């Protein structure tokens, strides 16, 4: 539900602003370079920068999330008057979630990608 609300907000923002990008984009190659059981939280932060979200678990472990979003209004959005009826926007997002144990060592990671389209009109 939270992702749906975020994507809806992104689509609305796109319709008003044209295009945007936000967050830290983590490539498949960067993810592949992480070694479970060896790479530490501090090494990840040194390599990728500060994550957009960090959760500390009751066992002392951490979950770090890197998120990236980009989007743009479609060309029809810029047609005077008609754009309000035939315009729209699209956006893509990618997140990488990493789990670290209490010692700060990488346990596991997941990646997720999504795409959203928004159209104006009656």
Main β-sheet: number of strands, strand sense, barrel status?
5 strands, antiparallel
Uncertain segments: 3-15
Report the total helices: 4
Q: Which class of secondary structure composition applies to the elements?
A: alpha+beta
Order of helix and strand elements from N to C terminus: HEHHEEHEE
Q: Give the proportion of residues in helices.
A: 25-40%
Shape: elongated
Distance between the termini: 25 Å
Count of beta strands:
5
Mean pLDDT: 83
Taken as a percent bin, the fraction of beta residues is: 35-45%
Description:
There is one protein chain. The longest helix has 16 residues, at 2-17. With 122 residues, the protein is α+β, with helices and mostly antiparallel strands. A hairpin with a 5-residue loop joins strand 4 (88-100) and strand 5 (106-119). Strands 1, 2, 3, 4 and 5 form a 5-stranded antiparallel beta sheet that branches. Helices cover 27% and strands 39% of the residues. It has one domain (2-119).
Question: What's this entry about, in short?
Answer:
The chain is α+β, with helices and mostly antiparallel strands. It has four helices and five strands.
